[in-house]
Amino acid sequence: MMDAQNPSFVDFETSAALGNSVPVDNVPVGFMVLATCPLILWLLDGTVAGFASALVIIAVFALGLVFLSVGQKNHLAYTSAEVAARPKIPFKLIGSAIVAVVVGLLAGAKIGMPALPLLIGCATFILCLVSFGLDPMRDKGMDNPAVRLRLANQELYRTFDARFERLLMNLSVLGDDDLSERTRIVADTVMGLLGTIDFETSTLLKVAPPLAKLLAKMEAEADDVIDSYGQGFTRFQRRRYHLKMQALSDAFEARARRSGIAQGRDSFELQTNLLFDRMHRNRK
Fold first, then answer.
1. Residue 268: Cβ within 10 Å count
2. Which residues of the chain are under the pLDDT cut of 50?
3. 131 burial level (CB within 10 Å; 0-12, 13-18, 19+)
4. 71: closest CA among 96, 99, 34, 35?
C-alpha cells in the first residue's frame, strides 16, 4: 500500500512568504515603479491639486520601495551569515504595507465603492508578502552550543590580541626599539600559542585566567618602565625588564604545552618561529 501524502500549498520550512528563505538573490524592486505609472496618471487631471497629489503618491511609493530593498538586503545578509540576529525593524513588512496603501489610494481615486479599493489594497499586500516574504522572525545560530563556544573563544582571542597591541602602543611612545622588540617577541609567542588552539574546544577558556594574570603583570611592568623612563632608564632596569618578560613568557609557554596547546597543524610553524625568536634573543 502506498503511503498517503498530505499535500500542502505552503512549505513551512522553506517558505519565503514566512521569512524562512529569500526568494531570489537580487530583486529589482525599482521596476515596480513601472507597474504603478498608469495608476499615477489617474491623478494627473490637469489641476494643481492633482499634480501635487501625484507627487505625494510617488514619494510615498518610493519610500515603500526603499523599505523593501533594505529588507531584502538585510534578509540576504541574515541568510548568508552563520549566526545572525533577527532584524529589529521589519522593513519588508512595512514596505509591503506602504505599497498596499498606495495602490489602495490610487484605486480609490477612480472607484467610488470603498470596499473594492480596500480589497485591492489587501490583495496587493498579500502579493508583496508572497513576492518578497516576511522578515526573519527569530535569531539564527545562537541556540547551538558549539556556535556559542566558538564565538566566546573568538571574542577572548580578539580581547587578548587587543590588549597586547595596546601594550605595545604604550611602549612605542618611548621610542625605544629594544624594549618594543622584546615585548613584541613575547606577544607573538603567546598569541602564536593561542593561534594553535581549536576554537571548537574549551581549551582557550581554561587558559584565559592564567593568561589574563600574565597580561596584567606585563602591563604593570610596562607602566613602571614608562614612569621611570624619563628619570633615566639604567642598563640594570632594562636587563631586569627583559628577564621578567622572558620569565613570564616561558612560564606561560610551559603551562600551555602541558595543557596540550601547540599540538595542532600549525605547531611546526610555531616551533620554527619560537626557535628564531630565541636565537634572536640570545644574539642580543
1. 10
2. 1-12, 14-19, 23-24, 265-266, 281
3. middle
4. 96
